[in-house]
Design a protein that fits this description.
With 484 residues, this protein is mainly alpha-helical. It is 75% helix and 3% strand. Helix 9 packs antiparallel against helix 20.
Length: 484
């Protein structure tokens, strides 16, 4: 099993794939004229606009669901892993993929809004929907939905629950099996309450956990402020093979930085579009811009907080390709939450293990919630026109079982399975958004033109020549009838 997963990851995450992902993000950045810079103020304003409805959630709630998926164990354990195998330079490449990837997140989330549907009394959308409606390739859409189900319900939850269980065991000595049972009970309570309960939980937990974590990192940075120039210099020198110790790791720095960056911020992965489609907005670009900013929050803020805590305190190990250690400050500590725990303990003795365990719990638990929502959306896609009640129940039981299983398995296998699930989704979704970028670009141009006219943009797909945007055609017609 482990050998098969390792072989699959070697293909899915080979060096050419890494550069393809960087290249696609760069192309989207260029064709959108770097909207991630031009519209950054608009992104922040739009986050707090809009209200929820019976069918949809507010922009902020959709952002919170997306962030609950993005801000997870990758922000703590993933950053540590990137530094362990790619050196400090991997942090720069995480920043790079976040900046470039924001444009990919915009394209996929705008497409999700354009091709969303109203199904079962609520908005549904995502890659499967825009592949079928935008590209007209039903088998490709079904393939993505099946891949997303396998990844979100079976492969990915274990990474999150494993990190929670490991952190809790290190901090409090509680058995992973007990932690796994607690996770299953709490997760069951939330997911059996439906999307509204998921949105409400995410809206309360995500801002609280992210702000608290960043504040602690700022305290550690301030207490070690004299190290700031050296740490920044180390990151950049290591990223471009200019550091004598880490110079030979440039390939690994790029590979691990991009891989862990995508794992954390999920830009282009196809997960963000699912909650993006659920937002109640007057124009698809509004939520596309909000989702683009969520990539910044995840990587530039939260991942950077972890990286700075680890590098400022020197609490990390870095291995060379031959298995020897370039840096070995934490002998016997496996790459993961232990780095961050040691970093905090070095500044605030006795505080690190407990704090990281609690942070991991909130980060990773909300991510599993988001995984369920994404899996549910793809079940809804596959079951359209049929009775999905039993399928939804089966999904809930499967994701609960996968969560418990991941909590009691080794971290190495959990991460390998997670990488495989992510790789499959990334490949399918990237192909789709490259083929289907035009409607998102047309919508962006329309949005910008309406803003220049001083209007609150509304979306009329027929006037723009965008076909099969059935929800918006009905919405625009209904709005005109209401006004007249």
């Amino acid at each position: 099993m482990a050998d098969f997963v390792a072989g699959l990851n070697a293909v899915l995450w080979s060096t050419p794939v890494i550069y393809i992902l960087l290249g696609i993000g760069l192309i989207f950045s260029i064709v959108t004229r770097f909207l991630q810079v031009r519209h950054i103020k608009e992104m922040i304003v739009l986050m707090f606009q809009g209200k929820s409805s019976e069918a949809g959630v507010s922009s902020f709630q959709a952002l919170s669901i997306a962030l609950s998926g993005r801000v997870g164990t990758g922000n703590i354990a993933g950053v540590a892993t990137a530094i362990a195998f790619g050196g400090p330079g991997a942090v720069f490449w995480m920043w790079a993929i976040a900046f470039i990837g924001a444009s990919s997140a915009f394209v996929e989330s705008t497409l999700a809004q354009i091709y969303k549907v109203k199904q079962g009394g609520q908005y549904r959308g995502g890659p499967a929907y825009y592949i079928e409606k935008g590209l007209g390739i039903k088998w490709f859409a079904v393939l993505f939905a099946a891949a997303a189900l396998i990844a979100m319900a079976l492969l990915m939850p274990g990474v999150q629950s494993n990190s929670i269980a490991t952190g809790v065991q290190n901090a409090f000595g509680i058995s992973p099996a007990i932690t796994g049972c607690f996770l299953v009970l709490l997760l069951g309570f939330i997911i059996f309450g439906g999307v509204k309960r998921i949105a409400s939980a995410a809206q309360m937990i995500v801002p609280f956990m992210a702000v608290g974590y960043i504040l602690l990192s700022l305290i550690i940075i301030v207490m070690n402020i004299s190290e700031l120039p050296a740490v920044i210099s180390l990151i950049f020198r290591s990223a471009f093979a200019l550091d004598s110790a880490f110079g030979g790791l440039i390939g690994m720095a790029i590979s691990w930085g991009v891989k862990r960056g995508i794992y954390s911020n999920e830009a282009g992965q196809g997960t963000g579009p699912h909650p993006a489609a659920a937002a109640e907005v007057s124009h698809p670009v509004k939520q596309g811009l909000v989702q683009a900013f969520s990539v910044y929050i995840d990587t530039l803020f939260v991942c950077s907080a972890t990286a700075f805590m680890i590098l400022f305190t020197g609490m990390y190990n870095t291995q060379a390709a031959d298995g020897s250690f370039i840096v070995n400050h934490l002998k016997g500590v496996e790459a993961g939450p232990g780095f961050t725990q040691a970093a905090i303990d070095s500044v605030l003795p006795g505080f690190g293990a407990g704090f990281v365990a609690i942070a991991l719990f909130f980060f990773a638990f909300t991510t599993i919630m988001a995984y369920y929502y994404i899996a549910e959306t793809n079940i809804a896609y596959l079951a359209r026109g049929g009775e999905s009640k039993w399928a939804m129940l089966g999904l809930k039981l499967i994701i609960l079982a996968a969560t418990f299983y991941g909590a009691v398995k080794t971290a190495t296998l959990a991460w390998a399975l997670g990488d495989a699930g992510l790789g499959i989704m990334v490949w399918l979704n990237v192909i789709a958004i490259v083929l289907l970028a035009k409607p998102a670009l047309i919508a962006l141009k329309d949005y910008e033109q309406q803003k220049k006219q001083g209007l609150d943009p509304v979306f009329d797909p027929k006037a723009l020549g965008i076909k099969n945007a059935d929800f918006w055609e009905k919405e625009y017609t209904h709005e005109n009838e209401r006004v007249s």
